[in-house]
Amino acid sequence: MIYRTQFLPVSDGVQSGLWESLRQEPPECVRYDSGVQTIDFHTHAFPDTMAPAAIASLEAEAGVSAFYDGTIADLVAAMDRSGVDLSVVQPVATKPTQVATINEWAAAISGKRIIAFGAMHPDVEDPAAEVSRMHALGLRGFKMHPEYQMFEPDEPRLDPVWAAAAEHGLIAFFHAGADIAIPTVRGTPVAFGRLLDRWPRLTVVLAHIGGFQQWKGVAEILAGRNVWLDTSYTLGHLPDREFVSLVRAHGPDRVLFGSDGPWTDPEAEISWLGGLGLTPVELEDILGRNAARLLDIATS
User: Fold this and answer.
1) What is the pLDDT of residue 300?
2) Which of 17, 21, 61, 204 would give a disulfide with 181, using CB separation of 3.0 to 4.6 Å?
3) Which helix (H) or strand (E) holds 160?
4) Predicted TM-score (pTM) above 0.85
C-alpha cells in the first residue's frame, strides 16, 4: 500500500496517568468545512433524567470536564455549533440487566441527526437473541467496553455475540486500549488481532485509533488490517506527525471521525484534524465519506 512508504515509528504517547494535564494544547479553533456531510461516529448521551448524575459521576471518575450536558438536545446543539450533520451515539451497559432497556432507548432516539448504536454486555444470558432483537429494532451495531465490562475481546465465551453480529450484519464497536478512569488494559492490539483472525466476517470499529496509549502495538499488529479505526480522544495525546503516519499506514479510507463527546469539543477536534496536513480527499473521507459508506447512507 502506498501509505506505508510514509510511515514513521509510532509511540504510545504520554505515559503518565495525568492524561489531561499533559495533553498537547489544541491549536486555535478555525472552522473547517470539508464540503461533505460531517459524521461524528463516537458520541455519548443519556436519557434526560439520567444525564446530570451520569455526567457528574464520569467527570469525578476520570478527572475531566464535559463540554455539554449529556442530553440529546445538548448533543444536537454542539453538533450545530461545530458543523456536524450526524452523530452516532455509543452507549455502554455496565450491567447485563441494562442492555434491553438501553437498546429500546437507542431505537427511540434514532432519527435524522442521530444514529444510536445498541449496547451489549458479555454476561447477557442469551446474546444471540438480543443481537437479533437489535437488528429487528433497526440498530446498526452495538458498543462494548473491555475495561468497564471486564472482558478480553477474543474470549471464547463471546463467540455467540460475534457469530450473531456477523449473521445480522451488525457493527461491533469497541473502546480500545487504556481508559483514563480504569487501571486495566484488556482491549489490546494483540487481543483485537486475534479477534480479527477468528472472525474475519465481523465488522469491527476500534475507538481511539485502535487503542488509547497502545499505538505502537496498533502500528505493528492492526495497521492495514480489515478493521475500522476512529479518531476519538487521540489528538493531543498522540503527537500530530505520528497520528498522521498511523492514519496513512492503516489507510485513510478506514478511519472515522469521532469526538468522544462530551469529553472533547467536536468543533476543536475538527479544526485540529483540518490543520494536520492531510490531503483534502483524506480529510473528507475521515470526516464523513467513510462513515457514510460504513453505515450505507447517502452523503454529499
Assistant:
1) 52
2) 61
3) helix 159-168
4) yes
Amino acid in the structure at residue 53: A
Q: Please enumerate in sequence order all residues whose Cβ is within 8 A of that of 52, keeping only pairs 6 or more positions apart, or say none.
A: 69, 70
Report the alpha-carbon distance of residue 51 to residue 111 in Å, rounded. Answer: 20
d(CA 149, CA 37): 33
The answer to whether the CB of 262 falls within 8 A of the CB of 55 is: yes
The contacts of residue 17 (CB under 8 Å, 6+ apart) are: 180
Q: Supply the CATH classification number for the domain 2-6+44-294.
A: 3.20.20.140
Sign of CA dihedral 289, 290, 292, 298: positive
Q: Is the pLDDT of residue 5 over 90?
A: no
b or e along 135-168 (b: 16 or more beta carbons within 10 Å of the residue's beta carbon)? beeebbbbbbbbbbbebbbbeeebeebbbbbbeb
Asked if residues 42 and 90 have their Cβ atoms less than 8 Å apart, the reply is: yes
Domain residue spans of the chain: 2-6+44-294
Query: Measured between alpha carbons, how far apart are the two ends of the chain, in Å?
Result: 27
Instruction: Return the pLDDT at 299.
Output: 61
The grid coordinates listed for 138 are: 433497526
Cis peptide before 262 (omega within 30 of 0): yes
Confidence of residue 1 (pLDDT cuts 50, 70, 90): very low
